[in-house]
């Protein structure tokens, strides 16, 4: 049973090891992806460990609970292809891609590709 990630401070990291390839389809297209992840852990931020492994794929999921209503911008950096999604409401099924990385970036390098940065997105205080 997956942990409840709807509460503030709950961010789930799931990783699948021993996967070939460098693209997201190599992860999502793998039969292993349909199974339980090899690693499951709770994080305190939307940031995964650095130099953790080779030949793996992962996803990090959680809810954003903004304390202030306003416009927000998001960035993504990843070691090979990565995509950043945000739901249009509190239902994860309504996620839309807001930023992506087509190839490798270094740790916290958010300006290598123009698509790493989202447009400004309106969020409401207290709404996940």
Kindly list the characteristics that best describe this protein.
128 residues; mainly beta; three-stranded antiparallel sheet; two-stranded antiparallel ribbon; 1 helix; 7 strands
Any overview of this molecule?
- This protein is mainly β and 128 residues long.
- It contains one helix and seven strands, in the order βαββββββ.
- It has one helix spanning 24-28, and strands at 11-17, 39-43, 56-62, 70-72, 82-87, 95-101, 121-123.
- The chain has a three-stranded antiparallel sheet with strand order 2-1-3. Strands 4-7 form a two-stranded antiparallel sheet. The chain has a two-stranded antiparallel ribbon with strand order 5-6.
- The mean pLDDT is 89.
Q: Per the principal axes of the C-alpha atoms, what is the gross shape? A: globular
The overall pLDDT average reads 89
Straight-line distance between termini: 22 Å
State Rg.
Answer: 15 Å
Unreliable stretches (pLDDT < 50, length at least 5) are none
Order of helices and strands: EHEEEEEE
Tally the helices: what do you get?
1
Structural class: mainly beta
Beta-sheet strand percentage? 25-35%
**Major pleated sheet:** 3 strands, antiparallel
**Widest sheet, order of strands:** 2-1-3
User: How many distinct beta strands?
Assistant: 7
* Helicity level: under 10%
């Amino acid at each position: 049973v997956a942990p409840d990630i709807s509460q503030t401070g709950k961010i789930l990291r799931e990783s699948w090891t021993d996967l070939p390839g460098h693209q997201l389809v190599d992860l999502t297209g793998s039969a292993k992806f349909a199974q339980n992840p090899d690693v499951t852990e709770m994080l305190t931020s939307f940031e995964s460990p650095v130099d953790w492994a080779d030949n793996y794929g992962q996803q990090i999921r959680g809810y954003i609970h903004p304390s202030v209503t306003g416009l927000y911008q998001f960035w993504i950096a990843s070691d090979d292809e990565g995509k950043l999604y945000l739901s249009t409401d509190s239902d994860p099924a309504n996620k839309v891609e807001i930023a992506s990385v087509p190839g490798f970036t270094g740790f916290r390098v958010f300006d290598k590709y123009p698509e790493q940065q989202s447009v400004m997105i309106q969020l409401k205080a207290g709404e996940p």
